[in-house]
Design a protein that fits this description.
It is an enzyme of class 4 (lyase). By secondary structure, the chain is an alpha+beta fold. It is 35% helix and 29% strand. The protein has one domain: Imidazole glycerol phosphate dehydratase, domain 1 (Ribosomal Protein S5, domain 2). The protein contains 4 helices and 10 strands; from the N terminus they run E-E-E-H-E-H-E-E-E-E-E-H-E-H.
């Protein structure tokens, strides 16, 4: 299990993560929709996740969402690296009604994000552009490559939830055990 605490003038965050868990979660960020997405991420990846964030949500949700992405990415990095005996590459499409988002992952130590979801609009009081900020922070701190590609959908909630669930399933698959040593022709990740 990895535990990380991070405190800035904008947020105070505690994350506990067990990558080989059962999908249990205890999430409290003060941002209801974001909590719901993190619960989906834990459930469908199979990791146990606790997140507590006391952020300056009176300003807006940006610092909370971005900083949780940073800390969660660091926790995932600590749980997974050095990389060996995993599948490494995976993808998934977890549909939600009319919405479908494809996520392709490489747990290869090279941070890169291709993000192709709608950025405009609100889900209640949650700004759609924050989804990209979360994944950018997570991907770069986890040191993975991720392509998050919008395929179809009209309901913003469904599109974002499809993205989180697809990321979770792809992550579970990429981290699945494979007797391969270091999954790289370079011999190091």
């Amino acid at each position: 299990m990895t535990e990380i605490r991070r405190e800035t003038k904008e947020t105070k965050i505690e994350v506990k993560l067990e990558i080989n868990g059962s999908g249990k979660s205890n999430i409290s960020t003060g941002v209801g929709f974001f909590d719901h997405m993190l619960e989906a991420l834990a459930k469908h990846s199979g990791m146990d996740l606790e997140v507590f964030c006391d952020g300056d949500i009176y300003v807006d949700y940006h610092h909370t969402v971005e900083d949780v992405g940073i800390v969660l990415g660091e926790a995932l990095f600590n749980e997974v690296y050095p990389v060996q005996n995993i599948e490494r590459y995976a993808n998934a499409v977890a549909i939600l009604d009319e919405a479908a988002v494809e996520v392709d992952l490489d747990i290869g130590g090279r941070p890169y994000l291709v993000y192709d979801l709608p950025r405009e609009g609100m889900i209640k009081d949650f700004d759609m552009e924050l989804v990209e900020e979360f994944f950018k922070s997570l991907v770069f701190n986890f040191k993975i490559a991720a392509h998050i590609i919008y395929k179809r959908g009209t309901n913003k909630h469904h599109i974002v939830e499809s993205a989180f669930k697809s990321f979770a399933v792809a992550l579970r698959r990429a981290l699945s055990y494979r007797e391969s040593g270091i999954p790289s022709t370079k011999g190091i990740i």
